[in-house]
C-alpha cells in the first residue's frame, strides 16, 4: 500500500517518481515475482483507513511530509480543502496494529524525530 499526500500548504513531493522507483526496484530484484502496488492518491484519514481495512498489505509506504509538533511526530495528510491534516505517530501505529503489515516505510521529513522519553 503506497499512500501519498501533497497538501497545498506544503512543498511539493513527486509521488509519481516515488511509485516508479519502487516498481522498478521490485521488478529488477525479481522480474517474475507477483506483487501489486495499491496507491492512495491525496491521502486523507478516510481514504487511508478505508484502504487499510479493505485488504491485507505486507508493506505500508507513506510518501509526503512529516513534522514534529510538541515532541510528537506527525505525518501530514490532506483534509477536504487539500490543506494539512496532521496524523500523530501513535494514531498511525494504532491503524497498522493487528494488520498483516510487516514493514512500514515513512518517506517524510522528521519521521525519526520526536520525544522518545
Keywords:
single chain, 117 residues, alpha/beta, three-stranded antiparallel sheet, 7 strands
Describe the structure.
It is a single chain. This protein has 117 residues and is of the alpha/beta class. The protein contains three helices and seven strands. β1 (2-4), α1 and β2 (39-40) form a beta-alpha-beta unit. It is globular.
Write the layout of secondary structure elements.
Elements: E1 2-4, H1 15-29, E2 39-40, H2 45-54, E3 59-63, E4 65-69, E5 72-78, E6 84-88, H3 89-96, E7 103-107
Parallel strand pairs: 1-2, 1-3, 3-7
Antiparallel strand pairs: 4-5, 5-6
Average of pLDDT:
84
In the sheet with the most strands, the strands line up as 2-1-3-7
The termini sit apart by 31 Å
Poorly predicted parts: none
The total beta strand count reads 7
Overall, the morphology is globular
- How many helical elements? 3
Gyration radius (Cα, Å) is: 14 Å
Strand content: 25-35%
Helix content: 25-40%
**Structural class assignment:** alpha/beta
Largest sheet: 4 strands, parallel
* Order of helix and strand elements from N to C terminus: EHEHEEEEHE
Q: What is the compact description of this entry?
A:
Helices cover 28% and strands 27% of the residues. The strands form two sheets. It has a four-stranded parallel sheet with strand order 2-1-3-7, with helices on both faces. Strands 4-5-6 form a three-stranded antiparallel sheet. β5 and β6 form a beta hairpin.
Amino acid at each position: 500500500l503506497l499512500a501519498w499526500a501533497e497538501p497545498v500548504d506544503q512543498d511539493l513531493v513527486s509521488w509519481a517518481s516515488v511509485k516508479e522507483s519502487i516498481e522498478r526496484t521490485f521488478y529488477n530484484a525479481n522480474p517474475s515475482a507477483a506483487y501489486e502496488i495499491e496507491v492512495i492518491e491525496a491521502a486523507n484519514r478516510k481514504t487511508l483507513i478505508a484502504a487499510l481495512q479493505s485488504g491485507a498489505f505486507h508493506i505500508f509506504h507513506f510518501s509526503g511530509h512529516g513534522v514534529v509538533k510538541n515532541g510528537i511526530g506527525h505525518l501530514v495528510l490532506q483534509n477536504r480543502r487539500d490543506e494539512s491534516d496532521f496524523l500523530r505517530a501513535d494514531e498511525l501505529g494504532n491503524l497498522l496494529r493487528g494488520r498483516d503489515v510487516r514493514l512500514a516505510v515513512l518517506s517524510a521529513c522528521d519521521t525519526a524525530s520526536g520525544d522518545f522519553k
